[in-house]
UniProtKB/TrEMBL annotation:
Residues 23-256 form the Erythromycin biosynthesis protein CIII-like N-terminal domain. Belongs to the glycosyltransferase 28 family. Residues 77-99 are annotated as: Disordered. GO terms for biological process: antibiotic biosynthetic process. Gene3D superfamilies: Glycogen Phosphorylase B. This is Glycosyltransferase. It comes from Streptomyces olivaceus. Keywords: Glycosyltransferase, Transferase. Residues 273-415 form the Erythromycin biosynthesis protein CIII-like C-terminal domain. One of its GO terms (molecular function) is UDP-glycosyltransferase activity.
Length: 416
């Protein structure tokens, strides 16, 4: 079989989520290609997969930064979710959510619509030649259903976390809707589908591969195939210090590169986090990129810098983590049973944090308002109060019982 993966190229995170499944297909003897915009080509090749470049001339992150107009791409609505009973439950978003946030939704989706228009010709040209038997896509690659419809290829989407894309009417939402939904799609997307003669509807995926814990996911996720999360945060040499236990709790502090870019320097919270942990009897492992490291300047004693070290190489040696609420970080820590302190700022991070907090394995702080003392107190709580560790261990066990990628491959083989 020929399997085509299409991750969104805003960051490497969607690609890294797809890597274990892509490797599982390769291990099962199938031919795999990964088609994405050129910005992702190097990362694709570095994970050992063949890259196909489509959608030249437009970078999604540039479009996102332009669309924000000096503001965050999505303001953090974690309080709204928590107040509405959505944190860690099986309820739907508030009924008036789309009405209140339609303009914000269109602004947030505009870069993805533009990327779809740029990617479609290259994807269709490549698939005319390569003829995939199965297409696995990220929920934000709006060009993928065009390939599915025009080439007659079964379409599978792969989610990252809580299925927040179900709140946006679009071809990868995964649920059928009554009547014509074109007025509810992001501006410009219906016209793209009309151009190619493809029906405007919400339910193109026939299955949804989902690594998010079942106990926290929204109900009725159409065609859901649970898949055990296999941590992959990039390739590197495993550091020697992971073999040495510090004799006191080890706390990882990390921040996503896209969070820093979207939130801006004025919202950079890591100095407060480091200050909050400086007075605790812990070893801090600061897992950041070079840009964030430079912003921090001189660090206090007891801070170990792990610059560009993938989290999965040392997470099992940690006792807790402080982070921005990104799904890759969140699931990597959960897979190792760590209590978590989350300080979400942008994009889907507030949704992730609010949902995950319902497990009892994590606490969410206001990134804008929490001072160093509050951050230190939150870390102390998750380290010393047993309930956090018990909840984290329960979630780790749940994730470990989910089917591995190899089992999901066998289920997907039946589609083609």
């Amino acid at each position: 079989m020929r399997i085509l993966f299409t991750p969104v190229a805003a960051t490497t995170t969607p690609l890294f989520h797809m890597v274990p499944l892509a490797w599982a297909f390769r291990a099962a003897g199938h031919d795999v290609r990964v088609a994405a915009q050129p910005e992702l080509s190097r990362a694709i090749v570095e994970v050992g997969l063949p890259a196909v470049e489509v959608g030249h001339g437009y970078e999604i992150m540039d479009g996102v930064l332009r669309s924000r107009g000096g503001q965050r791409v999505i303001e953090a609505p974690a309080d709204q979710w928590t107040d509405s009973g959505l944190a860690g439950t099986a309820e739907e978003p508030p009924a008036d959510y789309d009405d209140k946030h339609a303009d914000l939704r269109d602004a947030a989706m505009a870069p993805l619509v533009e990327a779809a228009g740029r990617m479609a010709p290259g994807l269709l040209r490549f698939t005319e030649y390569w003829r995939p038997d199965l297409l696995v896509t990220d929920s934000m690659v709006f060009a993928a259903p065009l390939v599915s419809a025009l080439r007659g290829v079964p379409l599978v989407r792969q989610t990252w976390g809580p299925d927040v894309m179900r709140m946006v009417s679009q071809p990868l939402q995964g649920r059928a809707a009554d009547g014509d939904v074109r007025a509810e799609w992001p501006t410009g997307l219906p016209g793209l589908y009309d151009h190619y003669g493809v029906e405007v509807r919400n339910d193109y995926p026939v299955r949804t591969v989902d690594p998010w814990p079942t106990s926290l996911q929204f109900p009725d996720l159409s065609g859901r195939l649970p898949m055990r999360f296999v941590p992959y945060n990039g390739a590197a040499v495993a550091p020697d210090w992971v073999l040495d236990r510090p004799g006191r709790p080890r706390v990882c502090v990390t921040w996503g590169t896209s969070t820093s870019a979207l939130a801006g320097d004025e919202a950079f919270v890591l100095p407060r986090v480091v200050e909050g942990l400086a007075g605790l009897d812990v070893e801090v492992v600061l897992a950041v990129g070079p840009d964030d490291r430079r912003k921090l300047g001189t660090l206090p004693g007891g801070v170990r810098v792990a610059e560009n070290v993938p989290l999965h190489l040392f997470m099992e040696t940690c006792d807790a983590i402080v982070h921005q609420g990104g799904t890759s970080t969140l699931l990597t820590a959960a897979r190792h049973g760590l209590p978590q302190v989350m300080m979400p700022q942008t994009a889907d991070n507030p949704f992730n944090a609010a949902n995950f907090a319902g497990s009892g394995a994590g606490v969410t702080l206001d990134a804008a308002g929490a001072d160093a003392g509050e951050i230190g107190a939150a870390v102390t709580r998750v380290l010393t109060e047993p309930a956090w560790r018990v909840a984290a261990e329960k979630l780790r066990e749940e994730m470990a019982e989910m089917p591995p990628p190899s089992a999901v491959v066998r289920s997907l083989e039946e589609l083609a």
